[in-house]
Structure formats: structure tokens, C-alpha cells
Amino acid sequence: MKRILYTLLLVFGLLASAWADGSRYASQSVLSSGKWVKIQVAEDGIYKLTLADLKKMGFSNLDKVAVYGYGGWPLNEDFSKTYVDDLPEVAVWKNADYLLFYGKGPRKWEYASSSFVHTNNPYSNYGYYFVTEKETAGRTMEKATSADGATLQVTTFDDYMVKDDDVVSVNNSGRELYGDSFESTLSRSYTVTIPGITNDAGKATLSFIARASGNTGSVTMSVDNNQLISGTFYRTSDEYVVATEVYETANWTADKNEKVNIDIQYNTTGHKNVRLNFFRLQMKRQLKAYDAYTFFRSLATRGNASRFIIQGADANTLVFDVTDGINPQQMETTLSGTELSFTIPASMDLREFVVVKPSQIKAPETVGEVANQNLHALAQQDMIIIAQPGLAAQAERLAEAHRTKDNLTVQVVAPETIYNEFSSGTPDATAYRRFMKMFYDRQTSEADAPKYLLLFGDGSYDNRQLTSAWKSVDMSNMLLTYQTKESLNQFSYVVDDYFGFLDDADNKEDIASKKVNIGIGRFPIRTVDQATKAVDKVISYIDNKETGVWKNNLCFLADDGSNADGFAQYHMVQADTLADYLAVDHPEFLVNKLYFDAYKKDVTGGQNGYPDIRTNLQKLLKDGLLLVNYTGHGGTTALSDEKVLTQTDIAQFTYSNLPVWITATCDFTRFDDLATSAGEDLFLNAKSGGIALFTTVRVAYVPHNAYINSRLIRNMFEKKNGRRRTLGDIIKETKCDLANVSNTNRYKLGFCLIGDPAMKLNYPEYRMQVTSVNGKTADGEAIPFRALEKITVEGQVLDASGALVTDFIGVVNPTVKDSKVTVTCLNNNKTEDSPFNFTDYPNTLFIGNDSVRNGKFSFTFTVPKDISYSGLQGKMNLYAVDSESGNEAQGNFDNFTVGGTSETADTDTIGPEIRLLYLNDTAFVDGGKVNTTPYFVAELWDKSGVNITGSSVGHDMMLVIDGSPLLSYNLNSYYNLLSGKEGAGIVQFSIPALEPGMHTAEFWVWDILNNSTVRTFTFEVVEGLKPNLVDVVATPSPARGQVTFHITHNRPESRMRVGIMVYDLAGRLYWKHEESGTSDLFSAYSVSWDLTDGAGARLRPGVYIYRAAISTNNSKEATTAKKLIILGE
Fold first, then answer.
1. Which of 111, 719, 797, 890 has the most CB atoms around its CB within 10 Å?
2. Which residue range(s) make up the domain with 358?
3. What would the pLDDT profile of 970-982 be if each residue is shown by its tens digit?
4. Same domain, 818 and 933
């Protein structure tokens, strides 16, 4: 018992130690009450607020006015260091007319490794403070008494200057920006004025970048014609290294003048990205009150009681000790003529002072009044959504969906409010992290721990909008990104994980080995329209109304590789390993393998592509997939060098069953770039594309992709404590799994979640079990499926506990596959001595549907004559949906073999009946006119069943146009049974573009006994043929809140331009909407409208005319008009 108690105490202690003390945070923010005005400062300095300034702000009592905050230095990324919570009150200096305060700008200086070094805030060009009027007197500076017994007289001080212009990103990645170019101008001269500089030894530092190609390059820096620094750039051929850096520091010992000339020379032409990062000078100066304020410090004073003697002072001159920026002190000074002095005791700390001429001090800039806020008082939240005010309404819609549908506590927060309480009002990505850490530290158990963070906005590598590319971009709806300091090579990342490193021990070093504590996702949205459509998609997915067998289907897409990349077969090996893992461990899913090298490569006419891969992928997407997993080459605009998927394709996607995508490829979703990437397009497609992506934002490497992809797949499909993981859990646990995997953990930084981290994939949750086949127990000996044998399968739907779901009433959809075969790839690129082999189930014996009653189902089919006769195991996948509740189930069965022939085979000798055949619509007649991409439809019936096995040459369902092999199409996979019509099915196929003129087509179809039927028909292709707008209906009508226009036409699956215009009876246009899209054979094209005009005002009640217009490529417009009644609200 004692051992058990000790173990429990130890475990509790370990859990408690993982969460820091939540009491470190204020229970209420100081901003929660009172009047507050935000001010900004551009640099470290002393700033003045006069009575007149304060009255303009709305304050009247100078004595009670207070300044809060800590300015613009970047927040410390090391969470083991001391942290200032909320907004501290700054000690200020006051007299009867004004106050003075020490303000920190966006550039931080510190002494490290014998040099003064600077850090620019990568998120802001200003530092911020807050002014308020208290009920009591505001805090003022304490006066530091001058010490006795000085052993050191200080008449000079250590100073520094830097030229660091942040204007260009050479990699569109990383936090470092660069300055002057030396590509066409190889040398540049700079002059800086340093009043009071002495001849004491100083230092010079140069940071310079270049990409040396062809030969080496070198850079020199001279100060007053004395060369101090020389650096060499060695030739690089690495395509991912855009430049390397020379960073050198040298002693500056020569005599010095107040005007200092700096010459920087690069010695080689033709190199790229040759730029100055910065140069920095460190020197000593005479201690004097030079300007309105002069900062000073002395390295010599460390360990010595020291007397500072300042020249150029008068009776009004002040000296502040600003070593502690929140608690500055006024130094007690002695004035003798124009010489001001004070003494400090011995200390090893380097202290920072400023001498001030109050009459010359300027006021800070006023930003404006800040509304009361109180993030510190928030209760624990499951999910935080950070969204700019312009997108807050849509973020709130999503938050409410999670509250009502998932029982989560969710808070939508504006980034500005986070900055105000967690980074002194200064934009800083670490403020997001600090905010999340507050919830993490306050948790008392895992139940009230923060779980998800959604960044509801796009981001940029240029957070400050300093580069020409971003300077004029509207970033008002965007959020900050965390960019790594490395900015010149493939290890430069944008890292959303950063916001989830919440342990005290999480410092800024080696973030790759850190474990993220929450699930993080991002919506890369910039506009209200994008936000609205993204939230619509997610809520629709959560509602889970798009039921269907597609949720059983997965697709693994693998590039063919090449000799050049050194991974000729590795993409396929990696994909096949994961596909086979799912086939074994999760056989309820049906894996579709699309490996490039298994298909013929088209190299004709300068082409280099896989048209069959493109066709098959788009067919699978149209039918529906739960997951698409791609491994291979890629970029921001396409998947693979062969461009099997492009941004143009994505823009034209209209399928409604949305998969999650895993893209183990380079740069596919580089969301922080100015141009919208292909991965973003998948997510942003308003009605199609993808529901989420586990995707890459930077370069990815094949060996490391294998680890990352493997963990993603396992976390996606393996349950944890009997429950499916959310998308946020999947990405979080994957990153944590890889944190300690050396040589791979840094590459996990290149993967992120584009999507909602609190959302789950719509896996069917019930399980299906086959209980018997032809009366034989399903779990006994393997049951033979013989050619032409009638098979009856019986089974049941079970819940998670294994109990029969007796109230499950609906439809079952079985898919029965022939036995596994070995597929030998074609070695298209001649990269290996032997081609890659993999196993697959390419041949289908049966696809059907039947009823489920009270949790039990049965279906019957006849095994086709065209089977493998292998005697090996086949595969059966099952899906079912409850017609009332929408609950879904899935399962599998493989205890059967395929081989032999039935002794009681049917003697049917009649081929399938083609009951209906047309192009585009049922009004088609033989010889009729059609567009260049007509839609082929045929309804079939056969008592034995239609043959779609694909296992026998010459027995495929085929459409052959003009007898041409190039215009011959295998339609096996386009055939579907018609529900409730035994033996009946339909084939639908969008014919690729045809030349104008007359064409003759033959349609061949076979039954499972290999009886055939052929139908010949002719048609005329007319380029630009106007579509037929059959009808348009507005529902509801009359309309009160919203109306949807349903357009029926004769161009299924064709991309159309659709327009809706609404007029009053006088012909005045009130609303116009245009978009492009497609609809399928059985659904109208729908456009919704909220009854508001172009300015957002709701239309008055009355009668209006709406006109619908449709057209296709190069066609004339088809239009029709009807009346719409709008009611009052």
C-alpha cells in the first residue's frame, strides 16, 4: 500500500511540475477598468507628456496620471527566464507641468561576449505604453543617493552605433531582412558622425551575405581607410542555400575623428544576393549631455565604486538610472558650473544611465484610446481562436459550432488585446505563446488544460511590412508568424508549433527538440469572404451530412522519382509501406494506390506527364475520399514535376466529399508568401478541395518524410483510449513523437496543420461484421467464391462495445474485390535495374447496395465469369448509413477465396439492356449537337449483373469514338448501381475535349457471363454551343432571411460561368453575383443570397425580378428571368 501511495504521489508531483504556478498571473488585467490611452515610441528614449498633452487624452490630474508597460523590445523566447505579467506601472519623473518617462523602442541592445550587440524586434517598428489616470497618485521615480568613496573617475563612456536597414528578404523566409545591394555596385561608402569620440580602442562588426557561384567571393570593410575586416564566400551549388553570411568583428585601434568613413567592398561580379546586413561600431565618447537625452554606460565601472562626471549640464539637467526599465531611478547629482557628477557603489552589473535636458524632450505619438479588456480574467478554455476584428464574426460562428456540437469551451480573441496584456501592446508573436501559457499554467488537471489554438488568419514572412512586396498589402486581417532566425537556407521555417511550446523549460534554443503542448491549426484567410466560406465548409463537415461509401476510401499517391534526386523508388516504397500498414491494421478502409510508375508516361509532343494518373485522381476525388496522401516532388503551384495536380485543377474542383490531404512534398502550402500556394487553394476552395491539410511550408526531405508521414497516419487511424483523435491531436502527437528523433526532428518544423485543430475526421464509428456467407459461418474455413456462383452475405452493425445496434435502419454498400495481384511498374525513368513491384486489388467483383434492418443486413450477388481463378484470398469492404440518424458503420471481410466455377451456373445468353443513352441531357437525339466536352450517360440493366471486373481483356465497358484508340475510354470505374432497382445501374462520363464536327461513337457493355451489347450513335460537336438553361427556381419564395437560386441546365460536370441579377420592377439593379463552378447530373447549380444589396443594406419588402445567366467556355449566354417576393424581417 505504501508503494502504491508513493507512486501516486510521484505521478502527481510529475504532473504538477509540468505545469508552472498559475498564481504568477494577475487575476484581473489593469486594463479591465478605467480610461486608457495607447502611445508609441520609435526608439529607446526619454519622453514627455505635458498637462496639455494629457488633457487632449482626456486626463486632468497630472499627479494621478500613470504610465504602464515595458515597450518594444522583443519578448524573451526563453520561458525559463523572468517574465513580467500584464502591464506594470512605470516609475516616472514629474513636476507641476509635465512628466518624463523612459520608453523602450523596437531595438534592444545588450552586452554579450565582450561586445554590444543589437536585436531588432521582428514584429514591430514601435514600442508601446499605456497612459491612465488612477484614483491615487501615480508612481514616481525613487531618488538614488549618491555613494561615497569612489575609486574611479568616469569621464568617457562606452557607446555604439549600427546601420541596419531591414528592406529585403532574399529567401522569402526567416526573420532576417537585409539592406543595400552590392550586386551591380560593388563598393559603397558610408559616413557617420559620432560627437565626442575618443581615440580609445573600439570594435567594428560586419554582417554581410552573398551567394558565391562559379568562384569564391570576398568582402572587406575599412574604417577611415584602414581595412579592419575581410571575409570569404565559398562557392555553393546547393539550390536551397540562397546565400551565406560573413560575420566578423575586429578591433578598431586607429585614431578617430567625429566623422567616421566606412567603406565596404565586394570583389566579384555575377554573384547573387550580395547585400549588407549591418555594420556596427563600438567606441568610447566623452561623457557629455549631447542631445535632449544621451544614454551612457561604462564597462570600467564593473566592480568599482565610480564617480561619473558629465559635461555640458545646467541646473535643469537630470540623470536617470534606467538599468531596470520599469523601475528607473533619478540619480542624486552635484552641479559644478557645467559639470554634473554622481557616484555609484561597486557592482559587477553593467548599469545604464541617461542624461536628460527636459526642455528639449519630445512627446510620444498618441495611438488612441483603448477599450477596457480583461483576458487575464478568462476561465480555462479548451480552444482559443485568434482572429482580427474584421474576421471575428466568422470566427465566432466556428466557435459556437464547437460549443454546441462538441461541447468545447471556446474563446475568440483579437490579437491586439493579446498584445495589450502580454507584450505591452507591442505586436509580438511570443505574446500569443505567453497568452496560451497562462491557460497552460493555470490548469489543475488535464480536463481543464488548453487543447487547441486556431490562428484564424493568413501570415507573412515580413511581419512589419518593410519589404517592397508587402509594403502596400492589406494585412489588417492577417496574424503574426514566427520565423526562425535562420533565413538563408533550407532550415529557415515558419513555425506555428512555436505558439504551443508552453513548458517553463522551453527556451529559444533548438526548438526542433521541443514538445508542443497543444494542437495548432491555421486558416490562411485574408478576407471576410474567404473566412465565411472556410467556416461554412468546416461547419458543414462537422454536421456530417455528406454520408457515403467514400468515407471508406483512401488514396496514396506516389511520385516516380528520378536518378537526379537519388530516390528513384523511395517515394513509392514510402507510400506503399503506409498503404500496406493500413491494409493490415485497418482493413475496413479501401486503399487506392496511384503510383506514377505503374502508368504509362506521356512523352509525346514535348509532354512529360501521367494523364491517366490525373484522370484517375480526379475520378477518385469526385467519387469521394477520406484521405489523400501524396509523397514526392512538388512546389507552391503543383504536385510533382509532371504536374499531376495544379492550381488550375484545384480552382476547378467541385466535388463535395472533402478529404484531408497529407502532402509530404516541398513548399506546397507556403502560406506566408505573398502569392497564394496550391495547398492554400485546396483549403480556400469554397465548396471543394480539402477540409484540411497536414502539409509542408518549406523544403521537405524524402527520408525524414517517411518518419513524419508514418506518425501522421498512425495517429490518424489508431484510436487513443477508445476515441478518434482530432486534427489538432494528430499534429500535436506526431510532432511530439518526433521531438527526440535526431536528424528528423528539425524537419518536422516544416509541417503544419491548415485547418481546424478541434475537428475530427468523419470516420464511420460503428463496426460491421459479416456473420455468414451462403449459410456458412463467416469465421470458419475460407469460403470459396466461384465464378457464376450466387453469393449471399449476412451481417450486423455493432457499437464500440460489440453490441448489436438494433435501431440501425438504412442502407449497406458492399464492395467485393478479386484476390490481390502483384503489379510491376514500368520503370519509366530507367532509374533502377529492376522495376518496383507492389500488390493491389485492381479488379472488382461487385459493387452494390441493400437494406439494413434493425442492425442486420444481407445482400446477394453473382460472381462474374471474369475472375482471377487464383484460389487466393479476396477482400470485401462494407459501409452502411442509418437513413434517419445519419450514423455510419464500416467493416471488412476477407475470409474467402476466389476461384473455380459454379456447377449451377446461370445459362443467361442475353447481353445487358441499354435502357437510356444520351449526351448532356435526355433531349439528345442521334446526330444531335453537343459542346466540345459532352457528358455521356447510359442507364443499364441486366438480370445477372454488369461486368466491371477489369480482369479479362476485351470485356471492359468501353466508349470508343471514331474508332480511335486515342479516343477509347474504359468506363468500368464510372458505373454505379441505381438504388432500389435490382440489376439496374448508370454510367456517367465527361468526355475529354473533342474536335468540332461529326463523330461516331460505340458503347460496349458486357454482363458477368460475358454476354455483350453495343450501341452506336452519332453527334456533332459545335464549339461555343450555348448551354440550355432548363429552369431556375428561388427557394423559399416568398423569402424573408435568405434565398437560394437553383439553376437546372444541360451541362453536367462542365465548368460554367453563372450570374444572378436582381432588379426592382423599374429595372434598377440591386444585386449582382457572378461565379464559376460545376454541378453533377442529378443536382442543380445553387447560389445563395442574404437579400442585401451591394452596399450591405437589406432590400425592402416587395416584388423583384431575378435573372439567371449561364455560359461555358466561348459560348453565348443562356438566360431566363422570374419574379421573387421579399417579405419584411
1. 797
2. 33-154+288-369
3. 999 999 888 778 8
4. no
